[in-house]
Amino acid sequence: MTDALSHPTPEQDDPGERIEHRWAVVAAAILVLFVAIATFAGVYHGAMPQSQVETVNPRTLHIDGEFIESNLGSAVEPDGSVTVRAIGQQYSFTPSCILVPSDTSITLRMTSADVVHGFLISGTNINLMLVPGYISSLRTRFAAPGEHQMACHEFCGVGHEGMWARVKVVDKAAFAGLAAQHRRLSCVE
Ligand code: CUA
Questions:
Q1: 109 within ligand 1 shell (Cβ under 6 A)
Q2: Does the C-beta of 150 come closer than 6 Å to ligand 1?
Q3: Contact by Cβ (8 Å): 170, 133
Q4: 145 with 102: CB under 8 angstroms?
Q5: How many distinct helices (H) and strands (E) make up the chain?
Q6: Distance between Cα 157 and ligand 1 center (Å)
């Protein structure tokens, strides 16, 4: 490394120093670019922490409250939107087949009954963590009927890789017909 005092213009004298300086600028520029991309993604796509934290007691999920078994599945709200309530536990999701209508506002509300799980829905950007004690909530919309796989993506124990569910998106009218007959819907056979 050259001493700046003995070389007043090191950029011109020492090619090594010049290259080093250039790379320092490039490295700083890359850093600034990444921060800008992360900021843009966070603000533009709304990929931010939830504005409010909802808690739930994982020990009493099955006894009372929103996540008792009879309340799980898809429910039609007065405004026509659909709320899906489900839980993850070692090593399955309940319900194991989630039924939703296409082209409808869907709110997913999920939690874990034991350890940390996660899930993603294939073909979508839906990706949530399920943390015991907290309700994970997400609003989404499925454009067209079809089937998606829903995998746990958080290592949760020996049975982790077998923790799968399905998401079945059916036509809006067909869903409305089913919803007229059942309070909660799923596609578990
Ligand atoms: Cu649940 Cu991995």
A1: no
A2: no
A3: no
A4: yes
A5: 3, 10
A6: 7
pLDDT in tens, 63-116: 889 999 999 999 999 999 999 999 999 999 999 999 999 999 999 999 999 999
Q: Which residue pairs from 160-165 have beta carbons closer than 8 angstroms and sit at least 24 positions apart in sequence?
A: 160/91, 162/91, 163/88, 163/90, 163/91, 163/92, 163/93, 163/117, 164/93, 165/86, 165/92, 165/93, 165/95, 165/96, 165/97, 165/98, 165/119
Q: Whose CA is nearest to atom 1 of ligand 1?
A: 117
* Tokens of residue 76, six digits: 């039609």
Residue recorded with tokens 């490039």: 26
Task: Look at the block and give the residue holding tokens 């017909």.
Answer: 177
pTM of the model: 0.73
- Give per-residue pLDDT as tens, 32-73: 999 999 888 777 766 556 567 889 999 998 888 999 999 999
Structure tokens at 49: 């922490």
